[in-house]
Every structure is written in structure tokens, then in C-alpha cells.
Amino acid sequence: MLQVGVIGTGMIGQDHIRRMTSVLAGVRVTAVADVDPAVAFRTGERIGATVFATGEELIASSGVDAVVVCSWGPTHEQYVLAAIAAGKPVFCEKPLATTQEACLRILEAEAAHGSRLVQVGYMRRYDASYRALKSVLGTGQIGAPLMMHCAHRNASVPGFYEKEMAITDTAVHEIDMVRWMFDDEITAVRVLTPRRSSLGGDLQDPLMLLFELSSGVLVDVETSVNIRYGYDIRGEIVGEEGTAALGSLSPVHVRRAGLSADPVPADWRERFLAAYDVEFQEWIDALRSGGRPVGPSAWDGYAAAVVSDAGVLALRSGERVPVVLAERPKLYGMEVAA
Ligand SMILES: NC(=O)C1=CN([C@@H]2O[C@H](COP(=O)(O)OP(=O)(O)OC[C@H]3O[C@@H](n4cnc5c(N)ncnc54)[C@H](O)[C@@H]3O)[C@@H](O)[C@H]2O)C=CC1
Ligand SMILES: O=C1[C@@H](O)[C@H](O)[C@@H](O)[C@H](O)[C@H]1O
């Protein structure tokens, strides 16, 4: 049984605790910590886990074999570094860290440790629809890819959500997905600002991002974070001889009162429910078999941060911003995770 400690017991922390305590096999949540002690105590009491006053104490505990970090982005670096220093595997929700400099510090620490300990929570790589899309691409049946159109729509966002988070918090999923889908790097970013939605308050919402890949493939991403009608994730690849798109996800299609409709998920927990399950089960199984994490690596977390930084610059300047990555350390090979 893998003994896991969870740092950050907010929205996604609770969801991952639920899957580790009642859905997945071979795992027990033995410890929790949150900067808000009331939340941590309620959770610890409910699931019978030890509550630690700080994430660092949780990481040091002998009752914790592996760590899951679900706290706010700016706090990820300190916990990932502490887990590496303790030699414990750490699953960190996205983003790996909020600056590329912080990601580089994590890469250095992991390289000094000498083997992979870190996995980043880019769950789209585990989603059945994205996996099917990648496999269609791989068979060559639509010919060489030329473009991809994506949409990332949230029904609404919390009050603390700022305009650049449409890139650093939201489109960062497409940044990782595109690198994985095409086995390629994003080399430049542009960001266009359409007419502003009146539903987004001060936010510049929606945004239109354009990624250039080193192969010449172009990827456009619409982010709309106040779309109201639900959580809608789309993707279509245009190839030389055909197109392939993420399919409809609904198990049921309703026709009534002059309407033909599929339900739309409320949020990411519903849309990516199965993907998170697969992501965590594969992580647990890899660690239990004495292996290393094989999903999105600290390198992937770093690359996403560099592209995301370029996106923020492109939004501020209105210019095309090139993406410059550091040299890829040997530890991360050229393998494509998940
Ligand atoms: N993969 C995905 O689809 C998703 C990933 N996320 C990521 O998960 C992380 C958490 O997001 P949410 O759960 O939505 O936020 P949240 O605000 O609901 O929960 C975060 C929790 O972390 C706690 N926390 C903050 N600083 C802390 C610290 N220094 N030490 C310990 N606990 C601390 C807060 O008190 C709170 O309970 C973010 O990095 C976010 O980007 C969130 C939603 C979906
Ligand atoms: O990661 C997530 C949130 O943090 C983010 O705020 C949302 O825009 C994404 O759709 C969700 O998957």
C-alpha cells in the first residue's frame, strides 16, 4: 500500500483525496496539511489521516512514502524541493511552479538527486479522447498535420482570477497537450484580444492564442472563462488529407421540445474525472512496483512555464514572442511521457 500525504486540501485536493480513498487501488492517504488548519482537520478527521501543521513536517513523516501537492501555484516550488530533498516522489498539480526560474531550481535539484521523483498534473495526456486523437494522428490517416484549433471554456472563474491566468492557469493545459500531441516544441507565441465579454468584469476575456511549433504546425487556442453554459474543451487537428477532432463525451443525447442536445460538464472535475483516475492509478502503480514516475516530468513543467511566460509577454506587448528553452538535461531523455 502506497502511503500518500496531501498538501493543500482545497477543491482539487479534496477531489484527489476522494479518488485515492474510494476509487483507486494500492493507496492510502495517511497525512494531510493545509495552511488553513480548519480545512485540514476536517479532512483528516473524515478520512482518518494525520494532520500536520506544515507541508514540510508532512513530507518528513515516516508515514508518508509519496507526496501530492495541491496547494496554490506559488507554493508548489517549496514543497517539491522539500520532497526532492527528502528523496520522496512528489506529484505536483499544475503548474509545476509559477516562474521558469523556480522550475529550473526544481530541475537542478532533481538532477542532483540523480533520478526522477517529480510528476506534474497535466491530466489531458490520460484522457481517452485526447489519447484517441493522438493515435489517429500517429496512424497517418489524416496525413501530415498542418493546424490545430482548440477551445478552453470555463463557465466562470473565482474572484481572484486575473487576466494573465487565462494563460498561466488555463491555457497552460493546451501548452502541455500540444507539446505531447505533436511530440514537438512550441517556438513562438502570439496573443490576440477580441472584443471583451461584458460578463468577465475587468478581465480581458476571451483571448486568442497562436502557437508556432518547430515543424511549422500552427495551433490556435480560444480561452473563454465566463462562458456560463458549462465547461467545454475542444480540439480539432487539420491534416493534409483529413481532420480529426475530440468526440462527443456524453453517454446520452436528448431530443425534446424542438431541441437536440448533449449535456455539457460543469467543470474539470466532471470532464476529466476518468483522466484523473487513470493519471493517479498509473502514478501509484509505477511507485508501488519500485519504479519511477513516468508521466509529465519536471522538464515538461519547465517547458510549459517558459511558453506560458512567453504568452504573458505576448499579451502585454501585442508582439510575437519567441520561446527559448534551456538545454534539456540528460535525466529527461527524449521519451514522451504517458
Ligand atoms: N489539473 C487540473 O485540472 C486542475 C489543477 N488545479 C491546480 O491545483 C492547485 C490548487 O487549486 P484548487 O484546488 O482549485 O485551489 P483551492 O484554493 O480550492 O485549494 C488550495 C488549497 O491549498 C491551501 N494552501 C494554500 N497555500 C498553502 C500552503 N502554503 N501550504 C498548504 N496549503 C496551502 C489553501 O488553503 C486551499 O485549501 C492549483 O495549482 C491549480 O492550478 C486546480 C484545478 C484543476
Ligand atoms: O486547471 C484548471 C484550473 O486551475 C483552471 O483555472 C481552469 O481554467 C482549467 O480548466 C482547469 O483544468
From TrEMBL:
<keyword id="KW-0520">NAD</keyword>
<protein>
    <recommendedName>
        <fullName>Inositol 2-dehydrogenase</fullName>
        <ecNumber>1.1.1.18</ecNumber>
    </recommendedName>
</protein>
<comment type="function">
    <text>Involved in the oxidation of myo-inositol (MI) to 2-keto-myo-inositol (2KMI or 2-inosose).</text>
</comment>
<dbReference type="Pfam" id="PF02894">
    <property type="entry name" value="GFO_IDH_MocA_C"/>
</dbReference>
<feature type="domain" description="Gfo/Idh/MocA-like oxidoreductase N-terminal">
    <location>
        <begin position="3"/>
        <end position="122"/>
    </location>
</feature>
<feature type="domain" description="Gfo/Idh/MocA-like oxidoreductase C-terminal">
    <location>
        <begin position="134"/>
        <end position="323"/>
    </location>
</feature>
<dbReference type="InterPro" id="IPR036291">
    <property type="entry name" value="NAD(P)-bd_dom_sf"/>
</dbReference>
<dbReference type="InterPro" id="IPR004104">
    <property type="entry name" value="Gfo/Idh/MocA-like_OxRdtase_C"/>
</dbReference>
<dbReference type="InterPro" id="IPR050424">
    <property type="entry name" value="Gfo-Idh-MocA_inositol_DH"/>
</dbReference>
<dbReference type="Pfam" id="PF01408">
    <property type="entry name" value="GFO_IDH_MocA"/>
</dbReference>
<comment type="subunit">
    <text>Homotetramer.</text>
</comment>
<keyword id="KW-0560">Oxidoreductase</keyword>
<dbReference type="InterPro" id="IPR000683">
    <property type="entry name" value="Gfo/Idh/MocA-like_OxRdtase_N"/>
</dbReference>
<comment type="similarity">
    <text>Belongs to the Gfo/Idh/MocA family.</text>
</comment>
<dbReference type="InterPro" id="IPR023794">
    <property type="entry name" value="MI/DCI_dehydrogenase"/>
</dbReference>
